[in-house]
Amino acid sequence: MAVLERFNDLLWGFPLLILLMGTHIYFTVKLHVPQRNLLYALKLSFGKEDNKGNNISPFSALATTLAATLGTGNIIGVSTAVALGGPGAIFWCWITGILGMATAYSECYLSILFRSKNDDGVYVGGPMYVLKNGLHNKHLGSVYAFCTLLAAFGVGCTTQANSVTQAAAASFHLSPHLVGIALAFLTGIVIIGGVRSIANLCERTVPAISFVYLFGCVLLLILYRSVLPQVFLLIIKDAFSLGSVAGGVAGATLQHAVRYGVARGLFTNEAGIGTSAIAAAASHTTNPRIQAYVSMTAVFWDTVVMCLITGLVIVANMLYDPASIAGVPETGLTAAAFAHLPYVGDAFLTISLAAFAITTLIGWSYFGEKATEYLMGKKGIPFYKLAYIVMIYLGAIIPMRLVWESTDLINALMVLPNVLALYCLRQHIKS
């Protein structure tokens, strides 16, 4: 743990944060602020089309991306960001989402432009194919694909299973082994069916789960309405404070606020990592601009809306009932806030967390499957799916902090080749 923490502090020091934020700002300016077309992008994303052949519709690609990104990062990740980075981390997480939409647009545009078709006539793409077909560097594509495979077992698998285990144990006193087996079984049923099975489930479940969770958050914000003006002031003040204003659970400085805000924002929306481009490439659309705009909205819903609302609930509870967070672990701030939800409380959050985690497990299984296909061909996919299901169980029983530190390391390693491809091929991207 000590080695991992030191290495992550080095990787997530200001050089990598500046690289990420600089990339977000650069593509925002270069593409003449694609965020200004957010309403157009949202309109495109709501225009559902049928899947065609073995490929999926733009909406299905968006739903698969949201399934992978909407998860424990929006609940547990925001909690750890506030605990370790202070309330100001919410501001930097939100900024990462606002600016990250331009980077997500660029990633998905290139993914459509440089994707390939496999033997079954299905489109496959993502940063590994951009590196291979755009930069003509198959080996660097293999490096990215290998990192994606690790991330599927880490970001998409163990973090989700572990978070559900912790919540289920606290709320219902369920055995981690039992929860791990149940998650592995439910996920396995879906992922064995392939991309169409994954996309169909995500289309039906992700919007409904998101609405229910946001409804619970809105009820809490109504309960905390008397402190909401103070909440906004505290978040802004803490975001630029050289010392600790509120300090979260562990105490924080400006560097901690930026480090954990950006790192958790990246973890949940994946702008800069490039994984959303893998789902975008499976769309049957031939217009890279349309799919790029549709996929861009995933960052909006994930970070600009969901993470912000969760963060407001956490900070509001810190001011409304300071005693409720005394002795609470860094992963428990969201649960402390939801304990005030009348009648349902902890059970509501646990069920929401489990639902999000299952969709994330399913969405990320697809990313890992495409990485496996790139590295080993289709013959490796059955072995990958089996390993993924086993890792869900293992993720449910290993220490949480080790999971999160490993996740930060993998995310950092995926950023570098993806950002390299974005800059090298930037002349191909049109807004």
The number of strands is 2
Straight-line distance between termini: 43 Å
Strands in their spatial order, largest beta sheet: 1-2
Give helix and strand order, one letter per element, not per position. Answer: HHHHHHEEHHHHHHHHHHHH
Percent of residues in beta strands: under 5%
Low-pLDDT segments: 244-252
Instruction: Please describe the biggest sheet, giving its number of strands, its sense, and whether it closes into a barrel.
Output: 2 strands, antiparallel
Number of distinct helices: 18
Radius of gyration over all CA atoms, rounded? 20 Å
Mean pLDDT: 84
Percent helix, as a range, is over 70%
Describe the structure.
By secondary structure, the protein is an all-alpha fold. It is 75% helix and 1% strand. The protein is built from 18 helices and 2 strands. It has a two-stranded antiparallel ribbon with strand order 1-2. Strand 1 and strand 2 form a beta hairpin. Helix 11 crosses helix 14 (288-320). The protein is globular and about 60 Å long. It starts with a helix and ends in a 7-residue tail after the last helix.
